[in-house]
Amino acid sequence: MKSATAPPRPLAAPLITVPPTAPRLPTPQPIATLPLSLYIHIPWCESKCPYCDFNSHTTRDALPEDDYVTALLSDLDDERHRAAGRPLCSIFIGGGTPSLFSAQAIGRLLEAVAKCLHCPPEMEITLEANPASAEQRRFAGYRAAGVNRLSLGIQSFDTAALTALGRRHNAAQAHSAVRAASAAGFQRLNLDLMHGLPAQPPTAALASLRTALAAAPEHISWYQLTLEPGTAFHHRPPPLPNDDQIAEVQEEGEALLAAAGLHRYETSAFAQPGGEAQHNLNYWHFGDYLGIGVGAHGKSSERGVVRRSEKLPHPADYLRLYATAGRSQRGREWTPATADLPLEYLMNALRLRAGVAATQFTERTGLPLSYIAPTLAQARADGLLGTNPQRLVATALGYRHLNTVLNRFC
């Protein structure tokens, strides 16, 4: 199940080459105490979607719920020192397909997290779920276990489009899942929806969006299908709409979302006022997050230095090593190069439609804003960034060509 809400992937290796004329790399200053989230990855799916490049795995065996939750809690025990007494601002259980796990397993997990970390009662706790009928029956149990926000991987309300995407549910189940989420008491509901699907005309894409809006969710993640390297669609590309059709859908779709009262606060996220995904916002503001589970990424600011982590990518290795190995064998950690930090920060912050306060750059990277001042000035002069020196925000032109903006910081 692909979602728009998994942790942003850090740079795997230094991508920025500082030219000879660039300012001398400063020594990063201590970073302020940042908000903290928890990401929990459940990697199993019933089948691998041909467009999905997330860390997901299929299995014909029974899912090892108890063993995996036990491993997750051991993983969390190793990570808890990074919290340094901070309360969590959100929990996100992603995948894979977390709704393949029982409500009892999710309840056991959340109960243990609450004993290990400071979890404010109003904290957002999101779980990704598929619309399949068997999983819908668990929704009430998830709500009782403490999940207060559900993210449904609808993708389309058209059965033919769902078949083309390799999804296991149909349009009727998509409609039923939305009703089941409401009946289970989920007032906070996100619908994942895609456009630019194989052979999908603009009318069909917009019809699916209108159907989603008719359900009046507080949040819609609406994004274009992309052919990611390593996926089945990348190896055998399906026929996709052309650029003009994509532009038509994007323009008309944004108008429909706005008319329904959902404002665009991030590249592919639209929400009613107050309905923004708090977990996502922490990513885009370059906050800290603990990552536990197969292949989970984490980011922390320890002793004033940004640290990255990544857990073992395969379920069998993760389960085996958490049962038998020492801490040093449970994944990898690294410190991003100082020269990489501007791009790592901006590729998150500039996704926000309203941008961020310029002072946040230093607060969250430890670098002075003067380090990127020449590039900022040129981007502003070219109409790609707003001219207010107190904010870092893309203009309408810059937002449409965000990769071009970000490439200037490489």
Structure description:
- The protein is α/β, with parallel strands linked by helices and 410 residues long.
- The protein folds into 2 domains: 249 residues, Aldolase class I (TIM Barrel), CATH 3.20.20.70; 69 residues, Arc Repressor Mutant, subunit A (Orthogonal Bundle).
- The strands form 4 sheets. A 9-stranded mixed beta sheet has the order 9-10-8-7-6-5-4-1-11, with helices on both faces. A 3-stranded antiparallel beta sheet has the order 12-13-14, with no helix packed on it.
- Strand 9 and strand 10 form a beta hairpin.
- It is globular, with a radius of gyration of 21 Å.
- About 3% of the residues have low confidence.
Q: Could you report the average pLDDT, rounded to the nearest whole number? A: 91
**What fraction of residues sit in β-strands?**
15-25%
Structural class computed from helices and strand pairing: alpha/beta
How many helices in DSSP terms? Answer: 16
The total tally of domains equals: 2
Low-confidence stretches: 11-22
DSSP, total strands: 16
Globally, the shape reads globular
CATH architecture label name of the largest domain:
Alpha-Beta Barrel
Percent helix range: 25-40%
- Kindly provide the radius of gyration, computed on alpha-carbon positions and rounded to a whole number of angstroms: 21 Å
Strands in their spatial order, largest beta sheet: 9-10-8-7-6-5-4-1-11
Tell me about the largest β-sheet. Answer: 9 strands, mixed
- The CATH class of the largest domain is Alpha Beta
Q: What would you give as the CATH superfamily of the largest domain? A: Aldolase class I
According to CATH, what is the topology of the largest domain? TIM Barrel
Q: Quote the distance from N terminus to C terminus.
A: 31 Å
